[in-house]
Design a protein that fits this description.
Layout: E1 2-7, E2 12-19, H1 21-38, H2 51-81, E3 91-92, E4 108-115, E5 131-136, H3 139-152, E6 155-159, E7 167-174, E8 187-193, H4 200-206, E9 214-218, H5 219-222, H6 226-233, H7 237-242, E10 246-258, H8 264-270, H9 279-293, H10 295-314, H11 320-330, H12 337-342, H13 344-364, H14 370-379, H15 391-405, H16 408-431, E11 434-439, H17 440-448
Parallel strand pairs: 5-11
Antiparallel strand pairs: 1-2, 2-4, 3-4, 6-10, 7-8, 7-10, 9-10
Helix pairs in contact: 1-2, 3-9, 10-13, 14-15, 14-16
């Protein structure tokens, strides 16, 4: 066997592997003799099939298999022994490699195209110019959220007159096109939720109505979907689909959600143990909780910005034509050459980031152990403040965590989350990004403008 590396570009090369008959013939014959011992063929006792007949039947397949194994081992060994850092995998060069008849022993030459992993430098420093946007809750957000909590924790009360956001109960009577009551038409009890009405004119026509008031309702103007119509009429979706749109609606009751009263009992119910005494403290607590929940979004924005900055600053050159071919050949059921050509900018960006990420993992020893994954599962079953547990409880929780680890999908998801967290923490520590406070509303505006 002879192997020769022929450079074809700054980042590409072709590996030529010359095989002589002596490189594979002995192994092929060994395989065929094994077939001969096991072969069962009419007219011959087991193990007594002539070798020539065995070779005629199985020789081509056995030769192809042995040559493929030989080529695979030769490729792997050459790459390892010469410490070649590859980009992607070697690709068979079908233009240079001849078509061989494996039924006859012969000398052969095979060609494989390679791409080298490009050299580049990853500089983690403030010079990248990445900003860490610390998202904060505005006074309005906290106030609106508190109003929403009060509404959800409130009490439904019957009132005399309709106001905005009231729930109106009543009886629907189906009408003809001329406004007369339809004979054998739909008669049902339902509700109109004024909070869902977008048309101001319709909403204003309801405001001030009282029990006993009769209102002409066109469900096509009050609802958008058939399911909404069904909910309004208090019928099934099938009945609503067949029913007409215009009804007399007689109000039978008006219900209003009275917001929960702002007092220490309410504060304790929403934030147990926080010892909140006033509305101002409640608003501050809401902001704190919101700000904590925004950390993940701040981190995600920082990570994406850092990723872009690193890709830009690393200036990684790629052997584009090889990469395009590699993408198609390794994803034959998913990608065509046209797909890759159209979306190559995105594929190139992803590949550059993968190279950078691999470098960071190697240089900074980033990894996630099974124990770290298990500890996340354990955390699902620990009560806050219960770090000190008896041995029986620990063993029980460990057993549950072990069973969770058997679910490869869930364990993989947790592993990925932990890995990304470590990567983000590394970037935060090394880049030392400039910090900028930004309200959630302004953050959304910024994100939508890009």
């Amino acid at each position: 066997m002879n192997i020769e590396l022929q450079k074809t570009g700054d980042l590409t090369a072709t590996l030529k592997i010359d095989l002589q008959t002596s490189d594979y013939e002995e192994n092929v014959n060994k395989v065929l003799r094994d077939y001969q011992r096991k072969a069962q063929m009419p007219g011959f006792r087991p193990g007594k099939v002539p070798f020539g007949l065995t070779k005629k039947m199985y020789g081509q397949a056995a030769t192809a298999d042995e040559i493929n194994k030989l080529l695979s081992d030769a490729l792997d060994n050459y790459i390892k022994e010469n410490n070649i850092q590859l980009l992607g995998n070697p690709l068979a060069n079908t233009e240079k490699t001849e078509q061989f008849d494996f039924s006859t022993a012969q000398n052969m030459s095979f060609y494989f195209d390679l791409a080298y992993s490009p050299s580049f430098e990853v500089k983690l420093s403030p010079d990248l110019g990445v900003t860490y946007y610390k998202i904060t809750a505005s006074d309005k957000m906290a106030t609106d959220y508190m109003a929403d909590i009060r509404q959800r924790q409130g009490e439904m009360t019957e009132v005399d007159k309709v106001e905005k956001n009231d729930l109106i109960k009543g009886d629907f009577i189906e009408l003809n096109e001329d406004g007369s009551i339809k004979e054998n038409g739909l008669a049902t009890s339902g509700t109109i939720n004024t909070a869902t009405i977008k048309d101001e004119e319709i909403l204003n026509s309801l405001i001030g109505s009282t029990a006993g008031s009769v209102i002409k309702v066109d469900t096509g103007k009050y609802t958008v979907t058939n399911d909404e119509k069904a909910t309004m009429l208090g019928v099934t979706a099938e009945v609503a689909a067949d029913a007409s749109s215009v009804y007399n609606f007689t109000i039978t009751a008006i219900n209003r959600m009275i917001p929960a009263e702002m007092n220490e009992e309410f504060y304790e119910k929403i934030f147990p143990g926080a010892e909140i005494k006033s509305e101002a403290e409640m608003l501050e607590k809401i902001k704190q909780e919101a700000n904590q929940s925004f950390v993940a979004e701040s981190d995600r924005k920082f990570f994406n910005d850092a990723l872009e900055a690193l890709i830009e600053s690393s200036n990684i050159a790629l052997p584009d034509e090889f990469v395009k071919r590699w993408l198609v050949e390794t994803n034959p059921d998913k990608l065509t050459a046209e797909d890759v050509e159209r979306d190559y900018e995105g594929y190139g960006r992803s590949l550059r980031w993968q190279l950078i990420e691999n470098r960071l993992v190697t240089e900074h020893n980033i990894g996630v152990s099974d124990e770290e994954v298990k500890d996340v599962f354990r955390g699902y079953f620990r009560r806050p403040g219960s770090e000190e547990m008896d041995e029986e409880t620990k063993m029980r929780i460990d057993g549950i965590a072990d069973s969770f680890m058997k679910n490869k999908e869930d364990a993989g998801r947790i592993r990925n989350q932990l890995f990304e967290k470590k990567l983000i923490d590394l970037l935060k520590d090394k880049i030392q990004a400039k910090e900028e406070n930004l309200s959630y509303e302004d953050f959304l505006k910024m994100a939508s403008s890009k």
